[in-house]
Each structure stands twice: as structure tokens, then as C-alpha cells.
Amino acid sequence: MFKIGTVTVMAAVALAAFSTSASADTGPARDGAVRTSSVSVQQGPWAGCPVGAVCLYKGSTWESGVDKMFWSYGAHNLSNVYGSRILFNNQVADGGRPALATECYQYNGGNCVSDPIDMYTYRTRNFDQINSVKLYLG
Q1: Is the alpha carbon torsion for 17, 137, 35, 107 positive or negative?
Q2: Whole-angstrom Cα Rg for the chain
Q3: In sequence order, what DSSP letters do the residues of 53-101 get, joined into one string?
Q4: Could you give the CA distance from residue 25 to residue 3 in angstroms, rounded to a whole number?
Q5: Are 98 and 138 within 8 A, CB to CB?
Q6: Distance, CA of 95 to CA of 79 (rounded, Å)
Q7: What is the pLDDT of residue 14?
Q8: What is the mean pLDDT of the chain?
Q9: Are the C-beta atoms of residues 89 and 122 closer than 8 Å to each other?
Q10: How far is C-alpha 5 from the chain's CA centre?
Q11: The dihedral sign for the CA sequence 76, 103, 134, 113
């Protein structure tokens, strides 16, 4: 883990078959999320998250392990999910359209964060006020 300005970037250690590059935003998001960069590696299973899934981790590190996996487009309601967590979008494009994920403050995908998590990108944020995760095509 290293800091760039006020943003914490967790660089994934790639396996020998992967090449990595990371870039970070220059500051925190307006909504309080800690932005982390995409990890540009050959897409595959990563830290327990299979290709095609969006994974919510138990904490703010990869080592915390996957708590929930989401596989289908639409809203997925959360219960008893609190604290700082990683949400990793390991989806692949569908019909040439990007598969996106976002956090929502209301149940059933209402009042969502304005900037989605792109494919093979993760974001760490406090989930105390998040009540659903939404998967959709861009």
C-alpha cells in the first residue's frame, strides 16, 4: 500500500503471468469514497473473485476475503454490511458494452453514486450508508 497525495492506492502484487500498471486519482471523491486505481492486468480470477462477478470484500484489504458475490444485472440489497470495504468489478464486457457496478444509498438501486466502477476496477469505501449494489451495462 502506498500514498499518492491524499489517496491510498493498494497495488496488487501480480503473478508472473501478469503485467501491472496503476494510476490514481489526485484526491478523494466528493462522496467520501477512497478512490483506488484500476489494476491493469490480464483479466482473470483475482483475490478470490471469479471472472464475471462483482465481489464485496469483508474489509478494506484483499486478504479480508470475499463476503458477497453478485452475478446478475440489477440491484442487490445489502443487510448488516458496515465499515470500510472493497467492491471489485471483475465483470467482462457484454455485447461490446462495458459492465459497470455502483454503490447505492437506498435499497433496490436507488440514489446511486454518480461515477460507476469500471470493469476490472475496485473502490474502497465506508459501507455504513450503502444499502444496495447495482450492476448494469454502460
Answers
A1: negative
A2: 14
A3: -EEEESSSSGGG-EEEEE-SSEEEE-SS--SEEEEEE----BTTBPEEE
A4: 11
A5: yes
A6: 32
A7: 28
A8: 78
A9: yes
A10: 21
A11: positive
